[in-house]
Design a protein that fits this description.
The complex is a heterodimer of chains A (125) and B (844). Chain A is an all-beta fold and 125 residues long. Chain A contains no helices and eleven strands. Chain A is globular, with a radius of gyration of 14 Å. Classes of the chains: A mainly beta (125), B alpha/beta (844).
């Protein structure tokens, strides 16, 4: 599979309410796609924009991560953008998929891109 | 996979606890004793009145689970390793894929002639203790053979039964393993002062007929030095020997002096067979304490779960044998290299014959680290010293200060804060300081709650003082630093924030955090601000600008369940419902294949709805006249009622009508936590109003209003706020009470904890809401009136708002359902498939 062919269009940026997530079907996988906007409305820069991780929450064994609350928590390595699983509130880093409470609950982060037209693409892998 | 565990002692049972929820395991437990696991560490408490049930380690229902079969009175006599079968005494065979030997040990009885005479007993099982009690009744003199830990415990039991008690020890001192000569001497002096006679250096040659004083055995014990001792009963407690006879007949490798040889994975010489606890021999050592046994159990559990990846699972690396005990009322503790056998090691000694304290420190040759200690008579510093030794914390400048009596104003030892988070506080249950801290942070703020939640200090209890210190230190820290700040983004309590928002006029989360907080917020402050904004401005929770700060339950207006489905709870005010409406609920449940259950709040919960089904389900319910039950919100749940004076012979007021009136008034009201209410039609209190946040009980003259009760985790009786009030006054008072709570309650604080933490408690609330001491009553009532006026059913609104309906889809780019949500039938309804069931289905 070539690199170009492996990108899947999932939805338009406007389909995602700011600071929420949606679940996208990418091949057979479920990917949680989040749209992060700063409180002042800024939507660009490294800590804003579109992020994607697995939708499957390892801890609860359910496909729910897209329905979690987005937040920012202090960690040893600085502030981390996270989503809190709606089932047991474990926090997953939006950039890496790492679980702050227990490495065993970490998930995969997906490559995601948002075009100038607002089209959101996820790279299947 | 078939796992067979032979032995249901403390260690065997720990293994079962660790594996109880492991998928894909069918466990058979063979227990030789007539009862399942009990607490042998606290066995002596049997004598002080505890029953076998009190000592049981089995939590109620534990053996009801389908994956564990317990066979009692089932003695294994052989293992056919080729066929992988365990043979039982009665001829039955039990097949296994993997086998764990947790057969424990048996009491060693020295090979003395006459040791099997009537009245010669051992001390190991509940049956042994029952025999001791029987013999104790007809005896006046009792001898314990063995001056170790169990021997002295046993001597206490005999003494407590009123017997003249003797302890006979082969070695020259008591407790040879744990203490040194001087410590042993002090221990002996203390024990003798209590009337127990100690005979050390006595080699028993034979036991013959003698002249005991009771009506019992009448034995004479003859010693190698020519002396004799006359007694009625003898209890042997001279150490333990591993029960390895099964391993012997099965041809597993054993140690020269017994014990089933295991490697670091706790595997025996047969890779399908593990051995754990006192029957296992690791690097030439048998571990006779419960903590190393528990360690082995945990390791084997992880090995079994890891399967092929077992090699990378944790391994057994030996164990610390430090211990602290109270023997015959004397504190004795031993840490690490208590005897000072490490080459070059140095000692510090403190001996106080007057007070009866002996303390010794063993330190490294360079004097920098503690490697061992003995404490007799007073062992309060055991925890501190143990942590210093285990964690290699450098000794203070004057190490002697650790054992010298503290002088006024001087501080000694290490603060609990010095300990790293990894420091093991409870070695029995493997609880670290970090585990305790996170449990405290998670709300376990009392010693009881902390023990329950972490299991720390629930086995031997030796670490209890340390657990308490951690708790105190953490609470102090959180009191000083965290105060009641909402989270790292808001340096305010919920109450403060409520006022700031009300004054500042912020109507969204973003406005609020820009004005009063910092950063982006998190899953703690977002729903809190959403609730505050809803309470202050009646901002509808469904508005898109609030979408990103609502918990999933508020976002989907339903309660998320463990498998990612949601439950649906229509409001049934006062628990009153027409047959037609009941039929509608039944029909909807049937149409959508939902699981139905009656709730504790007199309504019906429908489970198993997928997000995409919620609007249709609610469409049908709303069409039939149902409203949202707000079971998903931090808001009013139900107003429970009894049938009241309409039907009941005893009722004095119409409780159903009042319950419906109250429920319809406060439905949808957002608050710091959920609110439950009830109305009872007479003093018999069938609606259990005194366990509710707001409870109303009918009187001959009107209503009594109770507030701040709670059921659940920490039950609290509601307190009487007002008596014999009429309908209108009742509603006014509830209005004011609820609004005061909503304004001043902390996040997730129910009314019960709120009133307990409120300065002045109930009398303050009375002053504010009855006497109007703050002049607030009119404002509180007006706030509530606005809430009542602007109420609208969230579901009715949702199903008619296309923008809101968009969110009810599992995928943004597909109409498909989530394939991971799967059900099976149970008792004629659905239930979620377990992980195991899903796995079995996928496997070919």
């Amino acid at each position: 599979m070539t690199d170009a062919a492996s990108w899947t269009f999932v939805c338009h940026r406007d389909d995602i309410v700011p600071n929420t997530g949606v679940c996208a079907k990418v091949g057979d996988a479920q990917v949680a796609v989040f749209r992060v906007v700063a409180p002042d409305g800024t939507e660009d820069g490294p800590d804003n924009g579109i992020f994607a991780i697995d939708n499957f929450d390892v801890r609860s064994q359910a496909n729910v991560l897209s329905r979690g609350l987005i937040g920012e928590l202090s960690t040893e390595t600085g502030p981390a953008l996270v989503v809190a699983s709606p089932v047991y509130k474990n926090h997953l880093c939006l950039k890496t998929g790492r679980c702050l409470e227990d490495e065993a609950w970490s998930v995969k982060a997906w490559a995601v891109a948002c075009g100038d037209d607002g089209a959101i693409m996820v790279r299947a892998s | 996979m078939k796992l067979v565990v032979i032995g249901n002692g403390m260690v065997g049972h720990k293994l079962l606890e660790e594996l109880a929820d492991a998928p894909n395991l069918a466990i058979t437990v063979l227990c030789e004793e007539p009862r399942p696991a009990y607490d042998r560490v606290h066995l002596s408490e049997f004598f002080s009145g505890k029953t076998a049930d009190d000592l049981s380690l089995v939590t109620p229902g534990f053996f009801d689970r389908a994956n564990i079969t317990l066979k009692l009175n089932a003695k294994a006599v052989g293992i056919d390793r080729a066929a992988k079968l365990v043979q039982l005494e009665d001829g039955e065979t039990v097949p296994y894929d993997q086998l764990v030997l947790a057969t424990g040990s048996y009491p060693f009885v020295p090979p003395v002639t006459g040791r099997d005479r009537n009245g010669c007993l051992v001390y190991r099982t509940i049956e042994d203790l029952e025999a001791m009690t029987e013999w104790g009744k007809k005896s006046k003199v009792g001898v314990v053979v063995g001056g170790g830990l169990l021997g002295l415990e046993c001597a206490k039991a005999l003494k407590d039964m009123g017997l003249q008690t003797h302890v006979v020890e082969f070695a020259p001192r008591l407790m040879t393993v744990q203490v040194d000569d001087m410590g042993g001497r002090l221990l002996r002096r203390k024990i003798e002062a209590m009337g127990v006679q100690v005979h050390t250096g006595k080699n028993t040659l034979e036991i013959t007929d003698g002249a005991g004083l009771g009506v019992g055995g009448r034995h004479a014990m003859k010693f190698a030095d020519g002396s004799q001792l006359q007694t009625d009963m003898i209890v042997f407690s001279a150490g333990i020997r591993p029960r390895d006879e099964l391993a012997r007949v099965a041809g597993l490798i054993r140690g020269e002096r017994g014990g089933i040889l295991i490697d670091n994975q706790c595997k025996t010489s047969d890779p399908s067979i593990y051995a754990i606890g006192e029957c296992a021999l690791w690097q030439g050592k048998i571990f006779g304490l419960v903590a190393p046994g528990y360690d082995m159990a945990r390791i084997v559990a992880k090995q079994i779960v890891a399967g092929d990846a077992a090699a990378s699972a944790p391994q057994f690396n030996g164990a610390d044998m430090s211990t602290k005990l109270k023997l015959l009322g004397v504190d004795v503790a031993s840490i690490g290299d208590a005897q000072g056998t490490t080459p070059g090691s140095l000692t510090y000694l403190f001996n106080d014959d007057v007070a009866g304290h002996y303390k010794k420190l063993v330190v490294t040759a360079d004097g920098k680290q503690l490697i061992g200690a003995v404490l007799v008579g007073e062992a309060n510093d055991y925890g501190t010293l143990l942590q210093m030794a285990l964690n290699g914390i450098p000794l203070p400048a004057q190490p002697e200060s650790l054992i010298l009596p503290s002088v006024e104003g001087g501080s000694k030892g290490i603060g609990i804060d010095m300990l790293p988070a990894t420091a093991s506080i409870c070695s029995c249950n493997n609880v670290s300081k970090g585990d305790l801290c996170s449990a405290i942070e998670g709300g376990a703020t009392s010693l009881g709650a902390l023990k329950k939640c972490t299991k720390a200090a629930t086995s031997c209890g030796g670490c209890l003082p340390l657990v308490k210190q951690v708790l105190d230190a953490e609470l102090k820290k959180s009191g000083v630093l965290v105060l009641n700040h909402l989270c790292e983004h808001f340096a305010h309590s919920r109450q403060e924030l409520f006022h700031l928002v009300k004054v500042g006029g912020q109507k969204t989360f973003d406005e609020t955090i820009l004005a009063h907080g910092k950063g982006r917020g998190c899953d703690v402050c977002k729903p809190t601000v959403a609730s505050i904004v809803a309470s202050c401005w009646n901002e509808h929770v469904l508005k898109p600008k609030h979408a990103s700060v609502q918990d999933t339950n508020d976002y989907y207006l339903a309660n998320i369940q463990k498998d990612g489905t949601y439950s649906v709870v229509p409001r049934i005010p006062g628990g009153e419902i027409t047959p037609d409406k009941l039929i509608v609920i039944g029909q909807v449940a049937k149409d959508y294949g939902l699981y139905t259950k009656i709730t504790g709040g007199q309504r019906i919960d429908l489970f198993g709805a997928r997000v995409e089904q919620l609007p249709e389900i609610w469409g049908a319910l709303v069409a039939a006249g149902f409203e949202s039950g707000h079971a998903y919100g931090k808001s009013l749940r139900t107003v429970k009622s009894c049938v009241g004076s309409t039907w009941c012979r005893y009722g004095v007021q119409d409780s159903v009508t009042m319950a419906i009136r109250i429920e319809e008034r406060y439905r949808g009201l957002r608050s710091p936590h959920k609110i439950k209410m009830a109305v009872s039609g007479c003093t018999r209190e069938c609606a259990e109003a005194q366990s509710k946040d707001v409870g109303v009980i009918a009187t001959e003259k009107g209503w009594n209003l109770y507030v701040a009760g709670n059921g659940g985790m920490k039950p609290r009786h509601a307190e009487l706020l007002a008596s014999d009030v009429d309908d209108e006054t009742l509603i006014k008072l509830i209005d004011r009470f609820l609004m005061l709570y909503i304004r001043t309650g902390d996040r997730l604080q129910r009314t019960a904890t709120w009133i307990e933490n409120l300065e002045g408690g109930l009398s303050y609330v009375k002053k504010v809401v009855i006497e109007d001491s703050l002049g607030l009553c009119a404002e509180l009532e007006a706030d509530m009136a606005r809430q009542v006026e602007t109420y609208e059913c969230e579901w009715k609104k949702a199903i008619t708002t296309p923008e809101t309906l968009k969110r009810f889809s599992h995928f943004v780019n597909s109409k498909e359902a989530d394939a991971n949500i799967q059900f099976v039938d149970e008792r004629g309804q659905i239930r979620p498939k377990s992980a195991l069931e899903k796995k079995l289905e996928v496997a070919p």
